[in-house]
Design goal:
There is one protein chain. With about 1050 residues, the chain is α+β, with helices and mostly antiparallel strands. The chain is about 40% helix and about 20% strand. It contains 35 helices and 33 strands. Helix 20 links the parallel strand 28 and strand 29. Helix 16 packs antiparallel against helix 17. The protein is elongated, with a radius of gyration of 37 Å.
């Protein structure tokens, strides 16, 4: 949400400074009130006529405030069973009958986990607060009457490169052409500039201060989420006769857009929660990865094991005495079965993975916006990738393509011109303007026109029928004013709402007919001879996704002829143009080449025909109810029997390395869906060009189905085919939600239907990305909205391969190893406790207390165990070269019930060996049983980490040595402290240094670890994993 605007520069309007007051965002439009949305009338300069109150125009993206932070964070932590369990565990130690050791044994680990969480939440809240404060503190200029602040609806001035603070109606501009451009990338994801027109009545006023002197009001529809349409009227009552103007989307300035040219004045319609941008914003859900769900499931199994072990211990006591209290004590005694450090280790591992992804020089610019699900990148089964949009004036998304259009084909029915024959088109245009003077360009009355005249009519139609505006900028040699006056080619830049439009206009320039000027009411073209051709714009009918076409009515100033030009998609233009026998066939041929086809047509109008149309059109535009329907009906009265001029073919270039990237994803077992609004033929051709579908692979076109029976029959027909790609429409996809296929291409479908891993680069990809299990945004030329909403942001589509094959695979395998080892570490000490209690008549007496319990999972073993986040089974080059390795991850083999059971058995074996070995070998030194067993346990854990590591990193060696050094140092220098805080006799340093102690500890450690080394060797020798063959 963007509810403010930066300080405008008003030096160019110094004469009006007395009429402008500078206000903060929080101090203006501060009214509030919650009522149902309804239409409104906004009066200029008459606050007493205000009909409703405005919501506060401020933003607040914080989850908590000063008072709710602590209870809110604690509630969000303890609503999960995992943390609630440890809280109850710690609280139970306040009961004397249940106390097993020092309070800090339970409260310090829990406090550490909560402290880490609170610090992280506080840092995020602080950053959010500072961003909100910075935005809400920005100031802007507000038009006032005679220097006095005005209550009610505000007239705001916004300068170039400033963000519009509220939804407004465009009243005035400083631009000479009477219009301005908007950048809407943060609203709809499109970076192409949008043309906006002020209200004609207010633009004609001498000064901006006169806006508050006239008696006028704006009638606006109720607030809604549609950013592409608006219905309203502007009425001025103090003129004779009263002025009524219709208002549409072209007269609006939506919040979160940026003024790209000039300075504008607008009147505020909607603020706060009523803004279009706010109503279109949904709170993204908190995503939990599949890996985290699997870990949670394992912790539930561990809790079940904890309860069973406690009940068994009490049962072996024959439920003597206060057995229910004994059950609780055993639950506390074996609480280490569920490791509290598991969550901390995994969260810290996710931070490391995110840091590694950001630091990868081979995918520069990659941003991790959701550090909670990096392992999800290693579990992707379906990839939904966007390709392009639909319609003539396409402004939709392009993820596989570069969004750089190249004009490839001009088809006139009997002849077609490609890139290799554009010089012929240029010669035809040159011949027209050298043989005929500019005053006599009309050739429409000829019954049989020459080829040159046909080419000329087609090129002129393309040069006129668009929404492109040439903008002149200083190039260091020529200033802007001089460049605009002389139409300097080197200073001219084309701006439009679609790259298709720019490509067409650039092509007409290359063949000799150049667009050199355009304003609200006229267009100027330059002929090959340098003559300026002037045309008056009478009406413009913008492109909409419903109509799939655009039109313009112009008057040639040299001849007075009125012509209606139109271009659009063939599916709608086929019923508008005169009968012909080549349109459908040639459109299909060009679509199969991967070209985006436009049909161009024209119709000559007499003065009487146009005047009749204009009267009906103005009346329809003034309607408040059903305006769109009435306007469309009037326009359709002109769209009959139009003369077909030509077809144009534009190609959108594929991004770099799209083909090998898609090939890699397919080989990795990832099913790829391409979402597009193109024609079926174009979509199929693009899929083949991108290697989404192989050249030899059959394509099954899923016919339109309306019910499950038809879908079942069609699906059976598809299943009978082998190695076949599927093309399915969005309507059929709603009936058939899931099809078994290696590759799918969806034509004109709704991207919200699937939630796997979408990759998109535009504003209308946001909902798909936010709802997905793992969303990837591509920073394209259509803005960063999709990138900002995504969990992971990349700069090019080709980076997706390395993001999944390398980082996704490593993150998942590392977390799987880390989680299982943390569980193993806890189960080992719990097994030792169970053996100890069994030997001493099932007494609920702790084997280790205080410092030893905390040190075991922190300074003694934390660094080696956590160093597993640096481990990898194969090099990144090998993972990219053999994407088939990724398939194993899709089956969840690194973390499964099988691997979990194996680690449980290993833990039980090692814990039993260590405890029984200590009891057998040190029977005469039983007083030192704590030091004996604990030393063997630490050494076993360090050796097990070494056994688990597959590729050594220098930090792993440092972690092993550091942990061992810390333990030895604590035995030497802290033996008395350890004995005191552990409520056990001080550790005897001289006994630990004896040869008897050393060789017996060594034997216990070897017996616990050596068989596992042997089994690992035998397994790799006779049943090696897939990656081992690549590393040998």
């Amino acid at each position: 949400m963007q509810g403010v605007c930066e300080t405008p520069g008003v030096s160019e309007m110094s004469s009006l400074m007395n009429a402008w007051s500078v206000c903060r965002c929080c101090e203006c439009l501060r009214c509030c009130g919650r009522r149902d949305p309804r239409p409104r009338s906004v009066w200029l300069g008459h606050p007493e006529k205000r009909e409703q109150r405005y919501p506060r125009n401020v933003i607040n993206n914080q989850k908590y405030n000063f008072f709710t932070f602590l209870p809110g964070v604690l509630f969000n932590q303890f609503k999960y069973f995992f943390n609630l369990y440890f809280l109850l565990l710690a609280c139970s130690q306040f009961v004397v009958e249940m106390r097993l050791g020092a309070l800090y044994t339970y409260w310090v680990p829990l406090g550490f986990v909560l402290a880490v969480t609170m610090i992280r939440e506080a840092a995020e809240e602080l950053r959010c607060y500072m961003r909100d404060k910075e935005v809400n503190s920005q100031i802007y200029s507000k038009l006032t009457a005679r220097g006095q602040p005005q209550a009610g609806p505000a007239a705001l001035l916004t300068a170039r490169n400033q963000r519009v603070p509220a939804d407004m109606i465009f009243l005035r501009t400083s631009e000479k052409n009477g219009s301005c451009f908007l950048r809407t990338d943060q609203l709809d994801g499109e970076t192409d500039w949008k043309l906006r027109l002020p209200v004609t009545c207010t633009q004609r006023l001498p000064t901006a201060s006169d806006l508050l002197q006239i008696r006028s009001y704006v009638y606006a529809e109720e607030p809604n989420i549609d950013i592409h349409n608006f219905v309203g009227t502007f009425t001025r009552e103090d003129s004779d006769p009263p002025v009524n103007e219709s208002l549409s989307i072209e007269n609006t300035l939506w919040a979160s857009t940026v003024i790209a040219s000039g300075t504008v004045v607008g009147v505020v319609l909607y603020t706060g929660r009523e803004l279009r941008s706010v109503m279109n914003t949904s709170n993204p859900r908190s995503k939990i990865g599949l890996f985290d769900l699997e870990v949670n499931c394992l912790t539930k199994i561990l809790f079940g094991a904890l309860v069973v072990v406690s009940l068994v211990m009490v049962a072996l006591q024959h439920f003597a005495g206060r057995w229910y209290l004994q059950i609780i004590r055993f639950l506390l005694l074996f609480s280490n079965i569920i490791p509290i450090s598991l969550r901390v280790n995994l969260d810290m591992g996710k931070i490391v993975y995110s840091w590694v992804i950001r630091r990868d020089s081979k995918i520069p610019g990659t941003v991790v916006r959701s550090s909670t699900i990096p392992e999800q990148l290693g579990r992707i089964s379906y990839l939904l990738t966007d390709k392009t949009g639909t319609g003539a004036e396409n402004t939709a998304l392009r993820t596989l393509t570069q969004n750089e259009m190249v004009f490839k084909r001009l088809h006139l029915g009997t002849v077609a011109y490609g890139l290799d024959s554009m010089d012929e088109v240029q010669s035809h245009i040159f011949s027209i303007y050298t043989q005929v003077q500019p005053a006599g360009l009309s050739l429409a009355t000829k019954v049989r026109r020459s080829m040159s005249s046909r080419v000329h009519e087609a090129v002129k139609a393309i040069a006129l029928c668009h929404n492109v505006t040439p903008v002149y900028e200083s190039n260091g040699v020529t200033d802007q004013a001089e460049a605009e006056r002389h139409y300097e080619d080197s200073c001219r830049v084309y701006q439009a709402s679609s790259p298709d439009e720019v490509a067409l206009v650039q092509w007409t320039e290359s063949v000799g007919l150049t667009l050199v000027g355009r304003d609200q009411s006229s267009v100027q073209l330059r002929s090959p001879g340098g003559h300026i051709l002037n045309f008056t714009i009478l009406q413009i009918f913008p492109f909409t996704y419903e109509s799939k076409r655009m039109g313009i009515i112009v008057r040639d100033e040299s001849t007075g002829e009125i012509t209606f030009y139109m271009k659009g998609a063939d599916v709608v233009m086929a019923g508008i143009v005169q009968y012909n026998d080549w349109l459908e066939e040639e459109c299909g041929n060009m679509a199969r080449e991967g070209l985006r086809v436009l049909v161009v047509a024209k119709k000559s109008l007499t003065e009487e025909q146009y005047q009749d149309f204009e009267a009906r059109y103005v009346q329809a535009k003034l309607s408040v109810h059903d305006r769109s329907l009435k306007v469309a009906t009037v326009i359709e009265s002109l769209e009959m029997e139009m003369e077909l001029l030509c077809l144009t073919g534009v190609e959108d270039q594929l991004q770099t390395d799209v083909r090998p990237t898609l090939e890699t994803l397919r080989n990795a077992g990832i099913k790829v869906w391409m979402l597009t609004g193109d024609k079926l033929e174009t979509a199929t051709c693009t899929a083949k060009n991108a290697h989404l579908v192989t050249r030899t692979q059959d394509i099954h076109i899923f016919r339109l189905v309306t019910n499950r029976g038809e879908a079942h029959l069609e699906l059976n027909a598809f299943r009978r085919k082998h190695d076949c790609a599927l093309v399915i429409s969005g309507d059929s996809l709603e009936v058939l939600m899931c099809v078994l296929c290696v590759t799918q291409v969806c034509a004109a479908c709704n991207p919200v239907l699937f939630v796997f891993c979408p990759a998109g680069d535009g504003g209308n990809d946001v909902s798909m990305i936010q709802e997905a299990d793992c969303g990837v945004g591509v920073e394209g030329k259509e803005g960063k909205q999709a990138s900002l909403a995504a969990d992971f942001s990349i700069t090019q589509f080709k980076h997706l391969g390395r993001l999944l094959m390398v980082h996704g695979r490593n993150s998942y395998k590392r977390s799987a190893a880390l989680s299982q080892f943390v569980i193993h570490r806890s189960l080992c000490i719990s097994t030792m406790q169970a053996v100890f209690s069994s030997v001493f008549y099932f007494a609920s007496v702790p084997l280790y207390q205080g410092f030893l319990i905390i040190g075991y999972s922190t300074i003694y073993t934390m660094f080696p165990v956590f160093s597993l986040v640096l481990d990898k089974d194969v090099k990144s080059e090998v993972a990219m070269l053999y994407p088939e390795l990724y398939k194993d991850l899709l089956k969840g083999r690194p973390l499964s019930y099988k691997t979990f059971l194996i680690w449980v058995l290993i833990s039980i074996y090692q814990g039993s060996i260590i405890m029984y070995g200590a009891l057998l070998l040190f029977e005469s030194e039983f007083v030192h049983i704590v030091a004996i067993s604990f030393t063997s346990l630490i050494l076993t854990e360090l050796l097990m980490v070494a056994l688990t590591i597959q590729t050594w990193h220098w930090l792993m060696i440092v972690a092993e040595l550091l942990s061992l050094s810390c333990y030895i140092a604590s035995l030497v220098f802290l033996h008395e402290f350890i004995g005191e805080v552990s409520r056990s006799p001080p550790l005897n340093v001289y006994f630990i240094a004896t040869l008897s102690f050393l060789w017996k500890v060594t034997v216990i450690t070897l017996v616990s670890c050596l068989p596992l080394y042997v089994l690992k060797y035998l397994r790799r020798r006779f049943s090696p994993p897939s990656y081992s063959k690549l590393t040998s």
